[in-house]
Amino acid sequence: MTQSNKFLLDALLAAGEDKKHPFLSRLFQEAEDDFGVCSGAVKELMDEKNWSVKRRPKIIVVARENQSGNLTVRWYPLKSVNQPTRYKSQISIEKLSELEFEESYLGQCEGTEMTGGMPYRPLNEIMWFRQFRDLCRSRNEVKSEITASLLHAVEARYLELLDSIGKKLVIKQASEFVPIYKNGWVSDLELH
């Protein structure tokens, strides 16, 4: 059993009958859907046909809360003009003699595609957990141990994802989850 599944099980056991609460029900549904890991995007990232180098490409992984309160985790090649500006200054970017990913693949990663008017997630988004802000701020609405277990589960799944990707690619930098404790329970996660 993975660490994220252990924390999810702890949350489910702590919730008991409360798991039918509409707020918790939505969060558990999101967690049971592999915590929003975009398996197709992860598979494409790790597929060597999308690389333009023989060695392991170097990337950074940025986790942030978007304006809708969702956790979004995206990867960026080190030599990308699209990576967030604030991360460029924090990384000693190696001088790469060539782009490490195929241009056609990077082009697909730049934005969302539309099909029938419905947007897909960007191809460089490898995790998307809806209602993350609500989970972090819900400590007054639900039991602290449920919230704490779910926050630990999300963080554990993120770390498992990084570990999996790190076996095929070089992760030069990744955002960190910093737990904020209140009364002995994790009450929030800050992203750094």
Structure commentary:
The protein has 192 residues and is an alpha+beta fold. It contains seven helices and eight strands; from the N terminus they run αααββααβββααβββ. It has helices at residues 3-15, 22-32, 39-46, 85-88, 103-109, 132-136, 144-166; strands at 58-65, 71-77, 114-115, 118-119, 125-129, 170-174, 177-182, 185-191. The strands form three sheets. The chain has a four-stranded mixed β-sheet. Strands 3-4 form a two-stranded antiparallel ribbon. Strands 7-8 form a two-stranded antiparallel ribbon. Strand 1 and strand 2 (71-77) form a beta hairpin. Helix 1 packs antiparallel against helix 7 (144-166).
What order do the helices and strands come in, and which of them pair?
Elements: H1 3-15, H2 22-32, H3 39-46, E1 58-65, E2 71-77, H4 85-88, H5 103-109, E3 114-115, E4 118-119, E5 125-129, H6 132-136, H7 144-166, E6 170-174, E7 177-182, E8 185-191
Parallel strand pairs: 1-6
Antiparallel strand pairs: 1-2, 2-5, 3-4, 7-8
Helix pairs in contact: 1-7
